[in-house]
Amino acid sequence: MLSSMALRSAFKSTSVVLRECGVLSRLKGTCASLRLRHGAFTSVTTGPSHSNNETALTGIGSFTIQSVRNYARVVRKKKPVMKSQLSDLPPTMLKMEYAAVPLAQTADDLVKRLLTLELASHSEKLKLKTEQLIAKVQRDEADRSSTEVKVAILTSKIRNYQEHLHKHTKDKANKRWMLMAIDRRKKLLKHLRVTRYDAFEHVCQQLGITYTFPPEYYRHATRRWLAKKALCIKVFKEVQKQKLEQRKKIKQTPPPTLAEPARTAATGTQ
């Protein structure tokens, strides 16, 4: 009896010791893995392992860490850098509202930085660029509503939309506004080309616009329309064949002689 009780107490003490050893070994394994640098993880085992492909806990007192697989990332193609229309504006140029002020030329350096394009916003630079384009094509200094001036304003807007969409390709609203501005400019250029061709050439040359002629006829090609067109072509070819056969038959038949109409006239008199 006493011997069985002693054996039971010995088994309990040994099981507690084994459990404590297993917990300590797990803690040691995790600490060892944390010390390693990123990209240099290796399988750390603290205890007997039963197989080489062991990637998880295999029993009491054993712990493994799977190594990190550094897969190659897909190389993204860099977008070509689009040249901005505002790049030719020097930062030392005065803003549009201070260009005619004589005191702005003799101001302090710190004040000059505030009055020039060095600290100007994008909208201020765009206004100045638009005024430069208008000055190239306007008829006189007071001209603000002619067709040439409208084309210059729309050209500045279109190029600004293009620069924005080059960076933000999923901006649908700006894309819609850009297409509307392109259609409006196309109509104005078409009208200017019909009415004043010399002004049309001057505007295209000064603003760097390449005018492409619209197609004479355009129709959205659907399956029904393509099938109908193929049927019409087939019927047209068959009709042409029938007409050709009729012409051949007419050529093969001999022409009537002069005796035959005389006989018919004689029979008619009788």
Automatic annotation (TrEMBL):
Entry keyword set: Mitochondrion, Ribonucleoprotein, Ribosomal protein, Transit peptide
InterPro entries, A to Z: Ribosomal_uS15 (IPR000589), Ribosomal_uS15_bac-type (IPR005290), uS15_NS1_RNA-bd_sf (IPR009068), uS15_ribosomal (IPR052137)
Protein's cellular compartments: Mitochondrion
GO molecular function, one term: RNA binding
Recorded GO CC terms: mitochondrial small ribosomal subunit
Domain of life: Eukaryota
SUPFAM superfamilies given in the database record: S15/NS1 RNA-binding domain
Region feature (Disordered): 245-270
Any one biological process term the GO annotation gives: mitochondrial translation
Gene3D superfamilies recorded: S15/NS1, RNA-binding (1.10.287.10)
Pfam families (alphabetical): Ribosomal_S15 (PF00312)
Principal location listed in the UniProt entry: mitochondrion
PANTHER family found in the cross-reference section: 28S RIBOSOMAL PROTEIN S15, MITOCHONDRIAL, SMALL RIBOSOMAL SUBUNIT PROTEIN US15M
HAMAP family reported for this sequence: Ribosomal_uS15_B (MF_01343_B)
NCBIfam families documented for this protein: S15_bact (TIGR00952)
Similarity comment: Belongs to the universal ribosomal protein uS15 family.
Protein name: Small ribosomal subunit protein uS15m
Species in which this protein is naturally found: Oncorhynchus mykiss (Rainbow trout)
Lineage: Eukaryota, Metazoa, Chordata, Craniata, Vertebrata
Chain's gene name: mrps15
